Amino acid sequence: MTLLGQWKAEIETHVKPGAVTLYTHYGQSRAKDGTFLAQSDIVLTTYGVLASEFSAEDAAENGGLYSVHWFRVVLDEAHVIKSTKSQISLAASALSADRRWCLSGTPIQNKLEDIYSLLRFLRIEPWKNWGLWNKLIQKPYEEGDERGLQLVQSILKPIMLRRTKSSTDKEGRPILDLPPANTEVIYCVLSEAEKDFYEALFHRSKVKFDQFVEQGKVLHNYASILELLLRLRQCCDHPFLVLSRGDTQEYSDLNKLTKRLLKGEEGASKAYIKEVVEDLEKGERGECPICLEALEDAVLTPCSHRMCRECLFSSWRTGSSSVSAGLCPICRNTISKQELITAPTSNRFRIDVESNWVESSKVSFLLKELELLRDSKLQSGDNGAKTIVFSQWTAFLDLLEIPLSRRNIAYVRLDGTLNQNQRERVIKEFREDRNILVLLMSLKAGGVGINLTAASNAFLMDPWWNPAVEEQALMRIHRIGQTKSVSIKRFIVKGTVEERMEAIQARKQRMICGALTDQEVRTARIQELKMLFS
């Protein structure tokens, strides 16, 4: 979706006005008539629209894009169709066209099978046939036979045009003349308080991980282990992220919450439950019946009473959260910690992060860098101090807004919650407003296609499992149209899981290049996890 505006702008830049007709096929009001679509020279659409207009069960029902025989179909970011059984992959393959192109910087992301989906879309004979591909390439490769990989290279050689930044023409001149990009790793050191917090979290996570190892169930509990690692990685950005309200998601749907409360064993009156839910719906914070103050980190009991979590634990005659059960201070029913529901709220943190704001080490390092850039801009009057701050967690972007606002560093933000028009508006504002220095961007939203050459600085706040995702995000800046030297800084917290992730990224790079078999990947995954918890 982000790329629709980008492609439109590029076409308008490189084609003479009026030379071609262009139609963006997107949104509820898009044309359903194939005759109308066929009148445009170029039609831009998204994979989501493509999948929504496709029906594998009834091909006759496929209208819109499927009612036109195209001269050429181009898949941008073609690795999106890599999952062979996905609706998007099947939808793309079903399009009717004379010519078919795939554009991708990462044709293999995790496994060799990723290539098969592209060959199926391209209708390369006989390799679009899964039986042949599986027998002659997939199985031999999985069994460690290098001939499977060699055959893939032979298939790709006549059909693939590969262009990198170092590619040259016949005379040996670079096909792309870009200013240099300097990548630097900034190693941050945790404060004593942060270190204590991280180590407590690490030891608690390691105990759980060691139990899985002892039981021989590491891969069976892969999702649980990733959750443990997620918390450790978030802790490196800011301890507040570990205190984010992950458990509110289950009952963010208030209808679901109402049903849950109505099932309460002690059965509070329906009228009372309705009143509680209505307060939540209005976003009213409410008053704690124990401290008589505004609710802080509110919990709902099975008997539908709302109070501060800390007040409830204190009423159980101890401030320790290790207490597992006690009486409801209002109706004296016995309740356990497990039965408590974190009250849904618009605030995604358990504490008021604005009034309790504390800079983490990583945030402090970032702010120093941003202030240096702002100072250099003021001295030189140059517009080149524009910066993109990437993080994979939108909750961290929420936190970063606090110190940026307090230090009067003007910023805009782009993440997955924005619609197409909002995204275009943010990118335009960032590009054209000289006062806006920072674009806060989620790694997923900024990882593909969009042109952000208005910036010449990038800060990558947290390492991603797959190095190709990081690379794609950073290449939004260092690409055609960039006229300034580019500075890329990656933040890593020393002595933590982040430092060990760097070694894992190097191993993943080997896997993407096809140097590991599936069995080695399986073994490597367990070894990687053990290394992370060492």
From TrEMBL:
Any Pfam family: Helicase_C
Xref: SMART domains: HELICc (SM00490), RING (SM00184)
Keywords assigned: ATP-binding, Helicase, Hydrolase, Metal-binding, Nucleotide-binding, Zinc, Zinc-finger
Record-level GO cellular component terms: nucleus
PROSITE patterns with a match to the protein in the record: HELICASE_ATP_BIND_1, HELICASE_CTER, ZF_RING_1, ZF_RING_2
GO molecular function, one term: zinc ion binding
Lineage: superkingdom: Eukaryota
One annotated GO biological process: DNA repair
Helicase C-terminal domain location: 365-534
Family according to the record: Belongs to the SNF2/RAD54 helicase family. RAD16 subfamily.
Protein name: Uncharacterized protein
